[in-house]
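Retro notes
What went well: the complex prediction finally ran end to end.
Inputs used:
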Amino acid sequence: MRFQLSGDQRALRDGVREVLARRFGPRELRAAADRPPALDRALWRALGDAGFFALRLPESEGGVGLGLPEAVLAFEEAGRVLLPGPLIATHLAAGRVPGAATGEAVVTAVDGGRVEWLTEADVVEGGGGRGVAGSGAVALRSVDPLTPLHRLPAAPAVSAGPEAVPDPVAVLLTAAEQLGGATRACELAVQHARTREQFGQPIGGFQAVKHLCAELLVRVEVARAAVYGAAVTADPADIATARLLADEAAVRGARDCLQVYGGMGFTWEAEVHLVLKRAWCAPDVPGAARRVRSCWRASCCPERVAGASACTDGRRPGGVSMIVASTDHTA
Amino acid sequence: MDLADSAEEAGFRARLREWLGKALPTLPPRPSPADWPGRRAYDLGWQRMLYDAGYGHVHWDAPPGVRLVFLEETEKAGAPYVGANFVGLLHAGPTVAAEGTQAQRARWLPPILRGEEVWCQGFSEPGAGSDLAALRTRAWRDGDHYVVTGSKIWTSHAEVADWCELLVRTDPEAPRHHGITWLALPMDTPGITVRPLRTLAGSTEFAEVFLDEVRVPADHRVGEENDGWRVTMVTLSFERGTAFAGEVVACRRVLGELAQEARHNGRWDDPALRRRLGRLNAEFRALWRLAQWNVSAAEASGGVPGLAGSVFKLRYAQARQDLYDTAADVLGDAALDLDRPWVLDRLTSLSYTIAAGTSQIQRNIVGERILGLPKGR
C-alpha cells in the first residue's frame, strides 16, 4: 500500500494549480462575480490545451490516457479556485462530443430539473425526450453569481428509471470539486485567523476561533482520504462516501469560514460567500438521502455483505455501475 | 496512490491470517472484566503467543503499512486486544528503545516482548491533566536513589503492573518543562498505595497511585535528569497514531450487527434511523481511508506517526460516540439494560473524547502545530 500521491501525480496537481493561479486567481474570481456570467472561451480552450478535458481519454484517441485519481486531483484544483463552467459535463463528453476534449466545445448536462450554463453551452446532454434546447427552460436568478441556472419544465418524478441516475464518475468528480472548495474555505479561514487582530492579538489565538479552524481541517482531511480512496477503488460505496463527506466539508467549511471572517464574511467583497454558494450548487442528484442509502446498501445490508467484500478490493469489474443498481430500489 | 498490499504486506497478511486461524482456537476463555489477575494473565499470554510466532515486535519495528495489516487482521479474526500490554508496547517500551541505555534496553524490553511484565503510566496528577507539565510529584536525589513523594491519577492497570513509567519533578525552580525526569518505578517498592477508581461504567479500569518517600534507584532514570519532558514526547505520538486504527474495523463490524438488529426488531422501518446508519457507514469507511493515508505518510517520512494522529483521533472519538448513541436508538428501551450488547460500550465510549488528550487539547494541537495559529487562550 502506498496511499500517497506519486511523484507524477504531485507534478500534475502542481501543474494544474500553476495554470489556474495564472489564469483564474482571486482577482479574476472577483471580477467574474461582478459581471453577468459569461464563460471565458479562451480559458476554456487553454484548459483543453492543457489536457484538462481529455485527461482520461486514451492516448490512442488523442487523450492524455490518465485515470480517475489524476482527474480527481485536477478537479480538486478547479474546485479550489472556484473555476466556473460545466467542467464535469465537458470532461465526461470528451471523445463523444466533437470539440469537447480540446475545449472548443462547451458541453453541459441536465441535472434532474435543472441545467447549468445552458445559454453558454454548445451541447446539452441528458434530459431524456424533453428537448431541452428549444423547450421552455426558464432562467433562474441563481444564488451563485458564477453558476447560471435554468429550470426545466415538467421535470419527471424523482423516482425515474436508471436513466435518471448520474454517472458515478460525475459524482466522484463533484466530490473532488467540493473537496477543493473545502480546502479553499480552510485556507481562507486560517489566513484570516492568523492576521486579523482583536483584543490586541490575532483572533486565531482564541480557542473559540482556533477550534473552528481545527474542525475545518479535520473535515477536509477526512474528505480527502475518502475522495482519493474512491478514486483508487472506483467502488460505488466509496464514491457515495466521498461525495457525502466532501459535501459536508465544503458546506460546513464555508459556513465556519464565514463565521471566522465576522462582518467581512457577510460582504460581497470577501470571496467567502462565493465558496459557500458554489458548494450549495453542487448537483443534488440522486439526493443526499439516497446517497446515504446507496452507501449503506452497497456495503452493510446483510444481503449485500458478499458483494461488499467483493468490491472493497477495488478490482471488481464494472464496480462503478453498482451505485446505479443500488439506488434504483430504495426502501 | 495505491491501496493494494505491497508484496511484503501481502505475504505478511497471508502468514498472519493462517497463524491466527490456528492460534485463536487454542486461547483460554476470556476472563471476566472484574478479574484483574485473570486479565493480566490472559493479555500476557496472548503477547507470549505473538512473540513465539514472531509477531511480538510488530508494534516496534514493522513498517507502518505492515503494522496496519496486523491491526486489521487481528481485529477481523477477533483476536485479543493489546490490553494490559498497552503501556509497555505502545509507550514505555518505545521510550526505552529510543532513549534508554544499552543496559536499560536489555533489562526492560525483552520482558515486554515476551509477555512477562506489565507497565503502567504515572503521568497525570490531580492537578496536572491536560496541563501535564504542571505535575508536582517531587523527587529528591539521595545518594544513588531518587526519593519520590506525590500522587498520580488515571493510572490504567496499576493494580497488576510490575513497572510504572513515572514523570517526577526534580527541579521545581526550572521552567516547568525543564524540571521533569522520567523514572522506571518497580510497583512492589515500599511506599506505594494503589487505590482503584471506579469508572462511570462501574468497573475499576484505572487507579490513583500515592507515592510516599518511594526510593527509586538512580539507574532507573531514562535520559538525563530534568530532560524527562522531551524523553516522553519523543514517543507520545504512538498513543495517538495508529493505535485506534484497528478499532475502526471493529466499529464497522458493530455497524453491520446494528443493522441486523434493527431489521430484527423493526427499527429499520424508520428512515431517520437508516439514514443515521448510512451516515456512520460513510464515516467509518472514510476513517479507515484516513488511517491508510496517515500510515502511508508515516512510511514515506521514516516511520513515526506525526500530528495527523490528532486529526484522526478527533474524528474517530466523535464517530465512536455517535455509533453507540445510534446503537441506543436501535435498542430503544433495552438501551437502559446493562446486560444488553452495546450498552456498556456506550458508557465506555464516553472516555474517547477525554483520554489520551481531550478533544479540546487535540484541537489546540491541530490549530497551533498544523495550521500555525498563535498560542493563546
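What we learned: Chain A has two domains: 7-159, 166-327.
What to try next: split runs per interface for comparison.
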